[in-house]
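Data deposition worksheet. Section B asks for the primary sequence of the deposited chain exactly as it was used as input, without tags or linkers unless they were present during the calculation. Section C holds the resulting structure in token form. Section D is free text for depositor observations; keep each observation to a single sentence. Incomplete worksheets are returned to the depositor.
Section A, Depositor: J.P.
Section B:
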Amino acid sequence: MGKQMTEMLKGTLEGIVLAILAVRPAYGYEITARLREQGFSDIVEGTVYALLVRIERRGLVDVEKVPSEKGPPRKVYSLNALGGEYLEEFWGSWGFLAERIEQLRRRINNPQQGE
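Section C:
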């Protein structure tokens, strides 16, 4: 993943993780695996765990400790109502940005249409 993609991802990863949790609850490694399945192959677990700590502190997720067959209990994260509201706001912001960026791209690629 290039530096530009990494920088863009920093601003959106929180929303992406919340969207994953909107589908179903998951623990850290499972979230990382889902991200990789979606093509975010360069994301490391440490990045995901740090993000999970942040969204937990902000009250966007509920956490349940579930016994694990191997080692200590796992923290399973699920999206709560506040996280759902944040996710809706994220999708609105994302839609706005994506639309504006696409308009700019079209104007640059086809300057006569932008007038």
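Section D:
The domain at 3-109 is CATH 1.10.10.10 (Arc Repressor Mutant, subunit A).
DSSP finds four helices and three strands in the chain.
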